[in-house]
Amino acid sequence: MGVRAGIVVCITSFLLGSLFTHWIADSLTLWKSPVTDEHLWTAALYYSVLTKAPIELLYILLAIVALGGVTIFWSFHDGEAGNLMFDGGSIVLYGTTVMMYLYSVIPNVVAKFSSLPCQQVDEPFPRVLRFPTLELASNHLICSVALTGVLILQAGRWWAELSDGDEEPTYLEEKSEGPSTPAEEPISQPHAPIPTL
């Protein structure tokens, strides 16, 4: 369990960090009120830069996401109730993030921000790009919350297994006691027949 949980936590943390890099754009459109054209242009230019990144980076990201998903599914092999509960919730949240990114974020960025119109700082932001820019910020927030939920569920699983393990001796305790021998049963004496007269 330790290796699998470690892989899931590391990958989920990496993906959260990747989403936090979008804070440069998302904080301006999601958390600043009122949202000005300057904020929207900054976010749009940021997403435009993302579309010009090498495709190999996307392949690496997809490989990391796939490894995380496979590792969570791998935990179902044990068939324990804790795996079904905690990893089941983790799969739902992880899958929500993956589906949202594949079916909303990536197509939105590629379709809308691959080529931006030339702009001046004082020009109004195009209305066609306003909703997609705001939607990207919202989707990144949803993905961040879902991945945080995965981390919380994995921590809950670790804590539940730790509290269950308090009743059973640990591996190190068993090794220090030496090999266990079955309790000796008392040897019963055969009953002597009662003489008859």
Concise synopsis of the structure shown:
The chain has 197 residues and is an all-alpha fold. The chain has seven helices and no strands. Helix 1 packs antiparallel against helix 6 and helix 2 packs antiparallel against helix 3 (37-51).
Output the keywords.
197 residues, mainly alpha, rod-shaped
Describe this structure in words.
With 197 residues, this protein is mainly α. It contains 7 helices and no strands. Helix 2 (23-31) runs antiparallel to helix 3. The N and C termini lie far apart (72 Å).
Major sheet, described briefly?
Answer: none
Given helix and strand content, the structural type is mainly alpha
Helical stretch tally: 7
Contiguous runs where pLDDT drops below 50 for at least 5 residues: none
Tell me roughly what share of residues is in helical segments.
Answer: over 70%
Mean pLDDT: 82
Count the E strands.
Answer: 0
How far do the termini sit from each other?
72 Å
Overall morphology:
rod-shaped
Radius of gyration equals: 29 Å
What fraction of residues sit in β-strands?
A: under 5%
- Encode the helix/strand succession as letters: HHHHHHH
